Each structure stands twice: as structure tokens, then as C-alpha cells.
Automatic annotation (TrEMBL), chain A:
GO terms for MF: ATP binding; ATP hydrolysis activity
Keywords assigned by UniProt, alphabetized: ATP-binding, Cell membrane, Membrane, Nucleotide-binding, Translocase, Transport
CDD domains, A to Z: ABC_Iron-Siderophores_B12_Hemin
Domain of life: Bacteria
UniProt organism field: Variovorax boronicumulans
Name of the protein this chain belongs to: Iron complex transport system ATP-binding protein
Record-linked PANTHER family: HEMIN IMPORT ATP-BINDING PROTEIN HMUV
Automatic annotation (TrEMBL), chain B:
Entry-linked SUPFAM superfamilies: ABC transporter involved in vitamin B12 uptake, BtuC (SSF81345)
Originating organism: Variovorax boronicumulans
Pfam family, one: FecCD
Keyword Cell membrane on entry: yes
Subcellular location: Cell membrane
Keywords for this protein: Cell membrane, Membrane, Transmembrane, Transmembrane helix, Transport
TM spans (from-to): 64-84, 96-120, 126-147, 159-184, 204-231, 252-279, 291-310, 322-341
Gene Ontology biological process terms in this record: siderophore-iron import into cell
Any single Gene Ontology cellular-component annotation: plasma membrane
Protein name (Swiss-Prot/TrEMBL): Iron complex transport system permease protein
Gene3D superfamilies reported in the protein's UniProt record: ABC transporter involved in vitamin B12 uptake, BtuC
Coiled-coil region list: none
InterPro entries listed in its UniProt record: ABC_BtuC-like (IPR037294), ABC_transptr_permease_BtuC (IPR000522)
């Protein structure tokens, strides 16, 4: 299911990231197409966040390179990338007493030179989507972990709100977006991501929860598998044998009344 | 808690405060000038050097340049304080962290104590500008040193800058200590007064230079407001939003060095304005740098004018050094801020 | 020593009549009030501000204290001077403060400042007399002349100068005629933590020389921190210091407890002479008396 090169694809080829003697990521090659939800999975230390930051253009690999539309990310330039790609961080310490509203507004920073007519509406709708409208006037640093995460998600959505005039692909990258969220919000967030993928945005999320991935991701990238990185359709890749090999947990698939397979561990 | 005043209200309010402080400063002073005399001076400004009454001379040659210098000093310090706090992402930062004040002080100390014996041609060629130029140069050099020390792979690291600043500041302090041991009583007194800061002896040539330097710096700083907002999310996130973080840092450091360097070289060390002004603005207007930068400049100017008016009237005909007053206000303010920010440092 | 220079100063002070007239005209032009150089009995005598204790003393010696509207913080003698309005420390004067006293003239030494402030005062039409402090008898003479000019009391100034010149000549003659070796004297200055000792080109150095002593230290100008080794090699017979320095140390006993002094000949005999700083180093009208007193104390200490 590899997308055609150059058509809005986000990819990396034979990427290695090393700091000193420590190798964070080795020989990683992925090919991602927009319009899908891709989950990056793996045990702790497998390099999930590292891979995501390479794909975001935040980190230069020591070997190999990441490309967008076939061109290296460094060739696009950060200001241009910011118009097409948003990264929701795992955690972020915000200085000063900015409100939630202020933070979501920062998502529109890349568009400051060419603001649309509905800037205020964008922020309001983004906050409504992640259910943080009531938190708008609150100071971010006073919010709970889950509330902060939803504000940052709204910011990322605001950043990518409108399709690009030239039809270029948009990419929503998320580092453990559901880690701090309560159960209801976890699922509503994942449904939101699916909706955005349906509108053509490429969604890539580092997830911890295999069941969330199984339920909501079209495709998975598994790091730390014997034989290297595995990429493919969720149902194909996430087989019990692989799960047990990578996460060292015996797992038993069960299918619910809605027809979705989930895993029982332990 | 979130009853923040809008941008217009804050800017208007700080401008009003500045104008009020300027007006009060204009009518106050050791030399008694009545309002009607002041009016005469102002109205006769257009008409050449006709009647040079003593009030005329005192106001135009002594009091007015001092007021203008106060505005420039306060604006430069307030603006630079905002830049530093934005850069370090910490409301307790101030321009002294990157070594301008200590560098200027060290250079001033060297000039005062060693100047005559080691470089006698310097005072002869530069005259009364020697101290000013040396102090400016010293501040600049030390800032460059600290900036250079904070560079690592992938750019300048603020944590390194902070540590380098602490170390270099300590070194400059030690140098000053050495100089004070070597100094004669007179030199020590001169140095001491310089370190305490003062707007006294302001002459138009120096005031205009400082004014231009501060004006240019404030204008250059305006374009840093939005990037600094993004940097509040963290440098990584700001880069992802397309902010050129390295360039922002470099510009902020240079602008601060120029503005604070020019001010410090002319007035000596005036502390706490760069710390207090942005804090007070944030308390009423929130942390948006697009408001805090200009408002801190205006409020800083008002604060310096107010402090200077007290400094030159409370002990007339003598004067209190300005730095003493700003410390008396600033230290309790600083402690209050520490309490306020306790949980978040 | 300076006999010839003394005489020349005596004669030059009779020149300024023409200068007075010119000054009168320019003062009238400036509208800064008449300059009654001739009319010493006119109602309006020049208002004076003096910066430096010795110059203030000259004003009182001339009987012109009624014209004194302000002094600096070093002007402490006579006691009445302490009650005059203070314009601040002599190196950190305030332009507006000075002008608010509406002086006609300011007399200061070249150590006063900041220079910008003095320039501003001049521009405002106030006469600024600067006296070069070169630690010679000429310095005292210049102070007397300058105050005499500024206070419009030239006659009294000439009388005072003649009297002081005679005192000075007398004292120098007495000291010059004294027999016996000249004591090695070390001057210690200590207003704050670290005491300093005086080399050449200082007021103390000149005073020691005048009083018939020899500065135990040489080869450097100005002041240096006091160290034990330097003290030992200098080997002063007598330690000279100001009463203010002794107070800063907490008394004579505490002063002698300083380790740097322990190896000096002065320590063995506890040869310490203290003088008020202004009297000793101010180079004012009391200098002849101070030198005479100092010389006598030198002799007593050596005996």
C-alpha cells in the first residue's frame, strides 16, 4: 500500500539517529500517505518519539533523510513546513501566564502574514472540537494535564485548519496525544483524528495503547520488532505473535459486538 | 484573575503615566521654577536666544536633558528587561544576566582607577567621553563573551548563557574588587558613585546619542514580539511553528547590549527597572509581548523619571544616587515577585 | 624653598583692577546682577559656594562667611560651616542644586566634579574658580586669592595672604634650622576596611616634607594598600595618620594591633601622630600652624 512518491507523501529512508555512543533509531524507513491515520507503536526506548521528530523536521538524522513530496525536509524550510505540518508535543512547559485562548492562537502564528477572514472562528471551532471552549480564559499552567493536552491539540488543529491553496498535503503529527486524557476524551480525540484523516490530512500519532491503535489506526509502524521496523495495515501487522515478540506480553485477541478486534493482555 | 486590560487601555495608561511623570519632573527640582516661569521658557523656545533668564538656562541646559535622558534610560531598560525575560522564558530575568552591567562597570572601574596611569593618551583624545565609550565597549565585549560561551551544537542554549553569565559576572565583580583595592580614596569614591547610577550631568550631546540608540533598539525589538510569544511554548515548539529561534536570540542579545550599554555607559548602573516594569505590565495586561514590549518601555521611562525626581529633590541641594532609589523600590518588589512566582520557577 | 614664587604672587595680585571693570561690564550684560568689585561696601556682596574644606576655611578667615550660601560635605571647619546648606560630595555635585542657591561664584579644587556639572554652572553665568591642588604653598595662596576675588574682598585677601606668607616663612625657617636627622614618616589613610599608605605626589607626602620629615615610602605615586613586607622594608620611625582613620579602626590600641605595623621601628616606640584630616591635608589657612605642630611632634617622637 505504498503511496506514489512525490504525491504529498511523508517519508524517511534508512534513517539513523545517534547521540554520541547511543543509537536512538536505526535503519528506519517509512512511507506515509495523507488521508490515513498511522500509529507509531513500540516499547519504551524503541525510538517512537525520535522517529516522529525526524518526520516533523525537528531533528536531523545522523544518516538517511526524511522527505516530503520527495524533497528533503531541510529543503522545504521551517516556515514553509509550519504551514503544512503541526506537531502536538507530549508535554510542553509554557512560560508566563498565557491563557488557553492565547495558546490556541499561537497555532495560527505560521499564517500571520496571510490571515484568513475567519481567524477568530478557526480558534473557536478548534477549541470546540477538543472540548476546551470553557477553558479559553483560564491560564494554561493552572489546568490539569488532560486539559492542557486538549488545548495543545486544539492549537495543532488550528495550525492546519484550512486546506492549502495549492492542494499540498497537510500533516498532523502527535506524540502520545491520549496519554493524559481520560477515557471518554481518549476515544473522542481518536475519532476526531479519524475525521480529519477523512478530510485528507495525514495523521501520524505515537500511541502507547495498542487497543486504541487497533480500533482507530488504518496503518501501524511498529518499532523494536525482531528484524527491524514493520509497517503495514493494522490488522496485518498487529498479530499476536508480533505483539508478544515486541512487547513480551501474551495477548489474546477478542472481537467485540461492533466487529472490532481488541486485545486482552496478561 | 483574568480581568486583563486591553492593549489600547494599557498602552494609553502607560503613556499617560509617562507624560504625568515628565510633567512632574519638569516642574520639580532643587532650583525653584514657578509654573509661569516655565510657561515663559516653553513659549520662548521658538524665538532664539533673546532673554536667557536663569530659569531658561537651568531648564533647557540642566533639567530638560536630564528628563529626556531619564525617558531614554527607562525605555531602554524596560524594553530590554522584557526581551531578556522572553528569551530566558523566566519573569525573573533581567538585562544584567548577560553581563552588560558588569562589563560596563568593570570597564568604568578600569578607566577610573587605571586610566590615567596606563593609557594617558585615551583621556586626552576622548576627553570627557572616555568613561562613556569605555563603559559601552566593556558592556558589549562582556555580552559577546557570554553569548559566545553559550553556543553549542544546534545553537545557543539559554541554560548555558545563564551559567556563563553568572561566571563572567562573578569574574567582573572580582576584577572590580581588585580595582577598588588598588584605587585611591578619590578614585574609589568616583567609582562608587558611578556604580550607584545617576542622571546628573546629562548634556545634550550624550542624551541625544543615548536617545537615538534606545529609539533604534525599541524599533528593532518590535519585530521580536510575536516570535517571543511563540518561544514561550518552548524553543522546540517555536521552531516547529516556523520561528527562527537562533536569529531571535541573536537579535535580542544585540538589541539589549546596544540599548542597555548606551544607557549604562551614560548613567552608571540603574537596577531593577528591567525587572519591575515588564512584571507590572504583565500583571494588568497579560504576557503578550506585543503589549508588554511597548508598555514596559513607557512604564520604565515613567518609573525612572519618578525615581529621579525624588532623587534630586528629597535631599536638595544635594542628590541621592538614582540606583539607591531604584534598589529601595526594586528589592521589596523582587521579593514580592518571588513569593508570587514561588510555585512556578 | 618657594620664597621667590611667594613674592611674585604678592605682586601679581595688584593687577586685577582692569579685570574687575571688564567683569563688571560682562556681568551687567549677562544680567546676572552687578559685580561690585570696587564697591566693597555696596549692599549686594557676591554669594559664594565653596567646594573643599580648605576653601571654606579661607572664606571664614576673610570674614566673608555672611556671603557663604552653600558648602560641600568636606567643609567641616569651623563648626559653623557644618550648618551651611550642603551641595553634596565634592566629586558628585548637582547642577540644579548648586544653582538653586543662586550663587555668584563657586570656588572649588580641580578634584571636584563632575566636569559636566561645572560646565553647566558656567553656562548659567556663575563664575567657577578652579584651584589646582598641587600640594604646594602656592595652592594655599591661590585659594586665598580666588576667594578674595570671588567674594569681592581683595583687600582683605591680600592682608590675609601677607599674614599667612609670613607665618609660612617663619615656620619653614624654624624647621630648616632644626638639627638632627629627619625622621622617616609613614602616612596611613584608613576610612574603610583596607588601610592605604602614601607614596609621592600626595598631600601627605608634601606635608611630611614641609614638617622636616622624610616619607618612608618612595618610588610610587598616590596610595597603595598597606602590606607587612612593605612596612618592614620602609621601616618608618613615626606613623602619621588622621584622627578619622583612628576612629575607623576603633581606637589607638586596635590600630597598633595591626600585624603590618608590628615590625616597624615606630611600633616599638608606639610613635604615632594623629591629626584631623582637614587640618593636616586640606592645604588651607591653618597649614603653617599645622606644619609647625607636626614638626614639634616629630622632634618629640624622635627624642
Amino acid at each position: 500500500m505504498t503511496a506514489a512518491k512525490g504525491h504529498g507523501a511523508l517519508a524517511c529512508a534508512a534513517v539513523e539517529v545517534r547521540i554520541g555512543a547511543k543509537t536512538l533509531l536505526a535503519n528506519a524507513s517509512v512511507e506515509l500517505a495523507p488521508g490515513r491515520v498511522t500509529a507509531i507503536l513500540g516499547p519504551n526506548g524503541a525510538g517512537k518519539s525520535t522517529l516522529l521528530s525526524v518526520l516533523a523536521g525537528q531533528r536531523e538524522p545522523t544518516q538517511g533523510r526524511a522527505t516530503l513530496d520527495g524533497r528533503p525536509l531541510s529543503g522545504h524550510g521551517m516556515p514553509m513546513l509550519a504551514l503544512r505540518r503541526a506537531l502536538m508535543p507530549q508535554e510542553s512547559a509554557v512560560a508566563f501566564d498565557f491563557t488557553a485562548q492565547d495558546i490556541v492562537a499561537l497555532g495560527r502564528y505560521p499564517h500571520r502574514r496571510a490571515p484568513t477572514r475567519d481567524e477568530d472562528a478557526i480558534m473557536a471551532e478548534a477549541m470546540a472540537l477538543t472540548d476546551v471552549t470553557a477553558l479559553a480564559p483560564r491560564i494554561l499552567n493552572t489546568l490539569s494535564g488532560g486539559e492542557k493536552a486538549r488545548v495543545h491539540l486544539a492549537r495543532a488543529l488550528a495550525q492546519l485548519w484550512h486546506p492549502r491553496p495549492d492542494g499540498a498535503s497537510r500533516w498532523l503529527l502527535l506524540d502520545e496525544p491520549t496519554a493524559a486524557l481520560d477515557l471518554a476524551h481518549q476515544h473522542s480525540a481518536m475519532r476526531l483524528l479519524r475525521a480529519w484523516a477523512a478530510r485528507g490530512v495525514g495523521v501520524v500519532a505515537v500511541l502507547h495503547d495498542l487497543n486504541l491503535a487497533r480500533r482507530y489506526a488504518d496503518e501501524v509502524v511498529v518499532l523494536g520488532a525482531p528484524g527491524g521496523l514493520r509497517q503495514g495495515a493494522t490488522a496485518d501487522v498487529l498479530q499476536p505473535a508480533l505483539i508478544e515478540a515486541v512487547w513480551r506480553m501474551p495477548c489474546q485477541p477478542v472481537t467485540g459486538a461492533d466487529g472490532v478486534t481488541q486485545y486482552l493482555f496478561g | 484573575m483574568s480581568q486583563r486590560l486591553g492593549a489600547r487601555a494599557v498602552l494609553f495608561g502607560s503613556a499617560v503615566l509617562l507624560v504625568a511623570a515628565f510633567a512632574v519632573g519638569a516642574v520639580s527640582g532643587a532650583y525653584a521654577i514657578s509654573l509661569s516661569q516655565l510657561w515663559n521658557v516653553l513659549t520662548s523656545l521658538g524665538q532664539g536666544a533673546g532673554s536667557q533668564s536663569p530659569e531658561h538656562l537651568v531648564f533647557l541646559n540642566i533639567r530638560l536633558p536630564r528628563l529626556v535622558l531619564g525617558v531614554a534610560a527607562g525605555a531602554g531598560l524596560g524594553m530590554a528587561g522584557t526581551l531578556m525575560q522572553g528569551l530566558f522564558r523566566n519573569p525573573l530575568a533581567d538585562p544584567g544576566l548577560i553581563g552588560i552591567s558588569s562589563g560596563a562597570a568593570l570597564a568604568a572601574g578600569i578607566t577610573i582607577v587605571l586610566g590615567a596611569s596606563f593609557w594617558p593618551m585615551l583621556p586626552r583624545t576622548l576627553g570627557s567621553w572616555t568613561l562613556v565609550l569605555m563603559a559601552f565597549g566593556g558592556g558589549f565585549v562582556v555580552t559577546l563573551l557570554i553569548y559566545g560561551l553559550s553556543r553549542s551544537e544546534g545553537g545557543t542554549r539559554m541554560a548555558l548563557m545563564l551559567l556563563a553569565g553568572i561566571a563572567i559576572n562573578a569574574l567582573a565583580g572580582a576584577g572590580l574588587g581588585l580595582l577598588s583595592v588598588m584605587a585611591t580614596d578619590e578614585q574609589l569614591r568616583s567609582l562608587q558613585f558611578w556604580l550607584l547610577g545617576s542622571l546628573g550631568g546629562a548634556r545634550w550631546s550624550a542624551v541625544i546619542l543615548v536617545g537615538v540608540a534606545v529609539l533604534l533598539s525599541c524599533w528593532a525589538a518590535a519585530s521580536l514580539a510575536s516570535p517571543l510569544n511563540a518561544i514561550a511554548l518552548g524553543e522546540a515548539q517555536a521552531a516547529l511553528l516556523g520561528v527562527d529561534v537562533e536569529r531571535t536570540k541573536r537579535r535580542a542579545v544585540v538589541i539589549t547590549a546596544v540599548a542597555v550599554g548606551a544607557v549604562t555607559a551614560t548613567t552608571g548602573i540603574i537596577g531593577f527597572i528591567g525587572l519591575i516594569a515588564p512584571h507590572w505590565v504583565r500583571m494588568v495586561a497579560g504576557p503578550d509581548h506585543r503589549i508588554v514590549l511597548p508598555a514596559s518601555a513607557l512604564l520604565g521611562a515613567a518609573l525612572v523619571l519618578a525615581a529621579d525626581t525624588v532623587a534630586r529633590t528629597v535631599m536638595a541641594p544635594a542628590e541621592l544616587p538614582l540606583g539607591v532609589l531604584t534598589a529601595f523600590i526594586g528589592v521589596p518588589m523582587f521579593l514580592l515577585m518571588l513569593r508570587h512566582f514561588r510555585g512556578r520557577i | 624653598m618657594t620664597e621667590q614664587r611667594d613674592l611674585s604672587f604678592l605682586s601679581s595680585s595688584s593687577v586685577p583692577r582692569r579685570r574687575d571693570a571688564l567683569r563688571l561690564l560682562s556681568a551687567a550684560a549677562l544680567g546676572a546682577g552687578a559685580w561690585p568689585a570696587f564697591a566693597q561696601d555696596s549692599k549686594r556682596l557676591p554669594r559664594l559656594v565653596t567646594v573643599s574644606g580648605a576653601i571654606t576655611e579661607v572664606v571664614y578667615a576673610l570674614g566673608a562667611e555672611g556671603q557663604l550660601v552653600g558648602t560641600d560635605t568636606t567643609s567641616l571647619f569651623p563648626a559653623a560651616a557644618r550648618a551651611t546648606p550642603k551641595v553634596g560630595y565634592m566629586r558628585q555635585l548637582s547642577a540644579e542644586g548648586l544653582l538653586s542657591l543662586k550663587p555668584d561664584a563657586i570656588i572649588a579644587t580641580n578634584e571636584s566634579g563632575p566636569t559636566v556639572v561645572l560646565d553647566q554652572i558656567r553656562t548659567a553665568g556663575v563664575k567657577v574658580e578652579i584651584i589646582e591642588a598641587d600640594h604646594s604653598w602656592g595652592e594655599v595662596q591661590r585659594k586665598v586669592q580666588a576667594v578674595g576675588r570671588a567674594a569681592a574682598k581683595e583687600v582683605q585677601a591680600r592682608e590675609l595672604q601677607a599674614r599667612l606668607d609670613a607665618e609660612w616663612a617663619q615656620v619653614l625657617q624654624r624647621i630648616g634650622g632644626a638639627k638632627g636627622r629627619k625622621p622617616k614618616v609613614l602616612f596611613v589613610l584608613s576610612h574603610s576596611a583596607s588601610p592605604q599608605v602614601s607614596g609621592e605626589k600626595t598631600a601627605a607626602h608634601a606635608v611630611i616634607g614641609f614638617a622636616g620629615g622624610v616619607n618612608a615610602l618612595g618610588g610610587f605615586n598616590g596610595y597603595r594598600p598597606m602590606t607587612a613586607e612593605a612596612m618592614a622594608s620602609a621601616a618608618p620611625d613615626i606613623i602619621l595618620t588622621s584622627t578619622q582613620s583612628i576612629e575607623a579602626h576603633g581606637g589607638v590600641e586596635r590600630f597598633w594591633q595591626r600585624s603590618e605595623l608590628a615590625l616597624t621601628p615606630a611600633y616599638k616606640k608606639r610613635a604615632l601622630i594623629t591629626q584631623d584630616a582637614l587640618l593636616l591635608l586640606g592645604f588651607g589657612p591653618r597649614l603653617p600652624a599645622a606644619i609647625g605642630e607636626l614638626h614639634d611632634k616629630f622632634r618629640a617622637a624622635l627624642a
